[in-house]
Amino acid sequence: MAKILIHGKEYEVADGQNLLQACLTLGFDIPYFCWHPAMHSAGACRQCAVKVFRDENDTRGRIIMSCVTPVAEGMRVSIDDAEAKAFRENVVEWLMSNHPHDCPVCDEGGECHLQDMTQMTGHVYRRFRFKKRTYRNQYLGPLINHEMNRCIQCYRCVRFYKGYAGGNDLDAFASRNRVYFGRSEDGALESPFSGNLVEVCPTGVFTDKTFRAHFTRKWDLQTAPSVCVHCGVGCNTIPGERYGELRRIRNRYNGEVNGYFLCDRGRFGYEFVNSPMRLKKAVIKNGEGGQAVSKEEALKLIARMIGMGGKVMAIGSPRASVETNFALRELSGAEDFYSGFSRQEAALVSLVVEVMANGPASSPSLKEVRGADAVLVLGEDATNTAPVLALALRQAAKNGPLKAAMQLGIPYWDDMAIKTATQGKKGPFYSAAPYATALDDVSVKTFYGPPEEIARFGMAIARELNGSLPQVEGLDDETASLAREAAAALLAAERPLVVSGTGSGSEAVIQAAANIAWALCGVNRQAFLSLVMPECSTLGAALIDSRGLDKAAEAAASGGFDTLVVAENDIFMRMEREDAKDFLDSFSNVIVIDHIITDTVKAAHVALPGAAFAESTGTLVSFEGRAQRFFQVYAPEDERQAAWRWLNDMTDAAGVKRLRWEILDDVTAAAASAISALGKLTQAAPSAAFRIAGQKIARQTHRRSGRTAVRAEEIYEPKPPDDMDAPFTFSMEGFQGQPPSPLVPRFWSPGWNSVQSITKYQESVGGPMRSGDPGVRLIEPKVVAAPFFRAAPIPFKARKYGWLLVPMHRIFGSEELSLLSAPLAGLTARPFVGLSKEDAERLEAEEGEEIIVRSGGKELSLPATIVRGLVQGVAALPHLPGISIVTLPAWGVLARAKRKAA
Amino acid sequence: MSILDAIWRMFLHAFRERVTVQYPDERPVLPPRYRGRIILSRDPDGQERCVACYLCAAACPPDCISLQADEDGDGRRYPAFFRINFSRCIFCGYCEEACPTYAIQLTPDYEMSEFKRPSLVYEKKDLLISGTGKYPGYWYYKVAGVALKGKDKGEGAEEEAPVDVRSLMP
Ligand code: SF4
Ligand code: SF4
Ligand code: SF4
Ligand code: SF4
Ligand code: FES
């Protein structure tokens, strides 16, 4: 700690930071542009000027840039000094001299950092009497809008896009006052993190194009804290609603998870909520078609179905809330509840749960991932299966060189100096993957091979770390030496991290990753093991039950069941089509609750409209093991409601086994007491009874407009709906200040209308939220002897007439819900089969040529694409709709489709 | 005594000048800036002036303005719907003050009584007039930096031609 004097008053600040951070943490307002709490200081904008004085006799002082000045013991600072103020006002005036008169048509307006900073400095009148510089805009794809005239040349965009997210198609061009931020030519931005430009850019240059299509000002959005449902990372989000429609997603800072950033799947996937594929009414099957019926009619029919006392089987879902899965389990009894995993998923997920629950390695938060000083990624294409984890891994890759630079005396926040010192070097970062991945550019070295070989490579590393583990026979010299190199790097680190997961489809890979992390735990208590799971609550579902649908089908075939209840699961995606059909046919009644229309919904006797994430409250468990509550954002006008509530209503109507729950907290509490692994579930967020000064928290801002006009036809404006499940109101009435962190519905502070107001919600700038970061960890490592996996993985043998087909995940297209988001649909890849260059030559196939893929009795015709990194004898099949071979890796045969006669 | 005094005063009032106007036979002359019925005006070229910025709605104390922004094929912002609930409006004029385009204006018309309250809910078709209203010359898009069909970058008021990013000139 250092003592500094601001305006003559003494303050304690943490050492090693810059003065801007320190002052913001203390609650002072200093305007800034180029400094960003995650990307630190560039010293480019000159906006953060303050005055420092040499000693008590110094009355003149000198103006310095606070963002590039380290705090020092006894420093005397003045923010309010007249000269410093005038300086800051002048800087904004210069920045504004070319700024267009755009605020009314600028989507940033009302949450614009430039507006805020201009207000803060007091600049009000444009004295510049000359013409304004103009730029042409670029087409940047369906997600991001470009309006270059509004740029203030702060360089944040490229520092994020290139420096932080590793993109390489956005840059600064030209010189002097022509500097331009864009691509070398028009075209969609390639980085899967491009959406963050919207929040990083302090002006309206980069704005959200999907939001523009139904634009609303920030002050009119109804918001609540939420959690992303598009993968297992569990990034925290702020969805915004207006006029009954979900309008956008913004990042919600959680220091332990996503920090300041989201991926594009999470930011733009929300449009599925507005898609025509939503199920909005109860539907009863009659003949081939369906008939929309009222809630009462549907429940009456269901009462007849389950009221007879026949046996009920329930199928949950890894994309459903813990509460919904638990309610299903209560309905059917634990024995007849299945979480709805495919056979393969069930095997992989059970293994992951076993590793997490019984091993000594800790599952890291993303903050711990960002802080890791050596990384090994084993077989997981994180950029496509857990995007924000990949973004965190990119930061970890910088830690080695960063440490070296800091030893030269450069502070970590001096971004430009760090960049010069590190010269793009990357830290100890090793990876193994079946094909070239986006993280290869930060890897020191990458091992390519099919899952079996990746597992053997991993086992070889584990053996290097722990001599008692079995020797891996028959590795070539290159692989063996790479294994030695990676093992040495992990061993030398203080906080080594091993990343793997279900993405490769191989249990052996997960076992190898566990062995490595556990072996490290033997010599180093701080080893982390991060195991990726695909969906937003895969772990939540697995902790309730991890048997697969194959087991459910076996039980159903042995008879005795009358009714099947499925919630939020499309079983046609997890079983072979025929098997799924047979399975459904073995029940006299099939009841399905979902919020989208799936093949399973179409096959149901009764389909009930569930609520999407923004329409209900519940708890999800990320693959870190973090339980996080998402809150309902708006009340839909029709009969959509959370699946657990439908189940409650069903048993009420039928008069059997009443679930007897009034509100969500009842379900959460019941789940926490019934399942020991979920014991801490209730601590994910304060309960619905939580009040501040006797008030619930307002979902609407104090400046919400149109309250008396929106429903004007009705004469008497109806009372806003009550929310029994959450401590929030659907109104502007309620608490408007800072609630505890899991309940923060939006970031706003007087004078800080933009996302930069996050600073005001943090304990220290860039640190945890006040009252701690949201969520509760359910699984902690055990202090036990590691239960090593000792079976040696079988080596891969290329076949003469066959290919090993490995799964390939795509950020857009491999996830069920975001696939229904219209803006992302355009970015989804067409199905293809990925081949190595050698194999393409062997088949005499050219890029784009149709290839017939036969596997497991199925046949597909797909265009060939050369995929870097694939070894001979291995082909990649993307996880995209239209590719119906469910279980990969699998063996298959490839052949050229006959060419049509020319 | 005081009663007699009051009667006397009332009697004197009978000879004072009348302030009551015999409305509707007689109509008062109101200044042009009187705050009465609200209208939406048009640009000099006849296009809708409102750019759907939501500022009037935010400024409105009884929250009686609601609208939704949309964009036409030419790149112009306009309100897809624009509604004022005059049964709530207090004619404070804050919307006019907030409007950056002079689109929304209060007029001296006050004859808005209705028998049914829903008739006081004015939609865009009821609000939009055919002229520029009180501000004849103002044309927001001429001074804004965004390009529209028919107005390229650099063609706005006081604008340089767009920068040549590929120029190597110092
Ligand atoms: S960037 Fe900010 S200041 Fe500039 S036009 Fe947009 S809202 Fe206005
Ligand atoms: S585009 Fe935005 S982030 Fe990039 S330099 Fe300009 S103002 Fe800064
Ligand atoms: S990484 Fe996953 S949880 Fe995070 S924003 Fe992307 S899809 Fe959502
Ligand atoms: S303030 Fe003016 S331009 Fe903006 S929405 Fe209202 S009427 Fe339209
Ligand atoms: S914030 Fe300090 S120079 Fe830009």
Describe this structure as you would to a colleague:
The complex is a heterodimer of chains A (902) and B (170). By secondary structure, chain A is α/β, with parallel strands linked by helices. Among the domains of chain A are: 2-97, Ubiquitin-like (UB roll) (Roll), CATH 3.10.20; 298-340 and 548-738, Rossmann fold (3-Layer(aba) Sandwich); 346-539, Dimethylsulfoxide Reductase, domain 2 (3-Layer(aba) Sandwich), CATH 3.40.228.10; 803-896, Barwin-like endoglucanases. Chain A is built from 26 helices and 37 strands. In chain A, the strands form nine sheets. Chain A has a seven-stranded mixed beta sheet with strand order 16-15-26-25-24-17-18, with helices on both faces. In chain A, strands 33-35-34-37-32-36 form a six-stranded mixed beta sheet. In chain A, strands 2-1-5-3-4 form a five-stranded mixed beta sheet, with helices on one face. In chain A, helix 9 (322-332) crosses helix 24 (664-674) and helix 10 (343-358) packs across helix 19 (538-544). With 170 residues, chain B is α+β, with helices and mostly antiparallel strands. Chain B has a domain at 30-133: Alpha-Beta Plaits (2-Layer Sandwich). Chain B is built from five helices and six strands. In chain B, the strands form two sheets. Chain B has a three-stranded antiparallel beta sheet with strand order 2-3-5. In chain B, strands 1-4 form a two-stranded antiparallel ribbon. The longest helix of chain B is centred in the first third of the chain and has 12 residues, at 2-13. Chain B is elongated, with a radius of gyration of 24 Å. The model of chain B has no long low-confidence stretch (mean pLDDT 94). The interface between A and B is large, with 45 and 49 residues. FE2/S2 (inorganic) cluster is lined by residues 32-35, 43-48, 65, 67 of chain A.
